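Entry type: protein chain
Record version: 2
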Amino acid sequence: MRLTREKTMRLSHLITDVLVSSQEVEFVEDRDTIRQKTVQILQELLKEEEAVDTEVRKKISSQKKEVLEGSEEWDVLYRKYYAEEMRRMGVAHVPSS
């Protein structure tokens, strides 16, 4: 998933707001430092997700039989390989319906 810088910034503000309003969280850094770290974490996660997407697309394109993107077969393979890559990375992936 690709997010614009503005969307990433908006998410970081929302996450920071939730953390600030939580009684379970105590800040040891200032709010802006927390928000900046949140942006960094989001960007790293998005890079990892992009790498998984690239790897999955390579696997699909390396099939003996050509599978057209957008077809039902392609979608099934994409979900299967995506879940495998996420498990390999130690991330539990629950496919959406």
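Comment: The CA atoms of residues 76 and 82 lie 10 Å apart.
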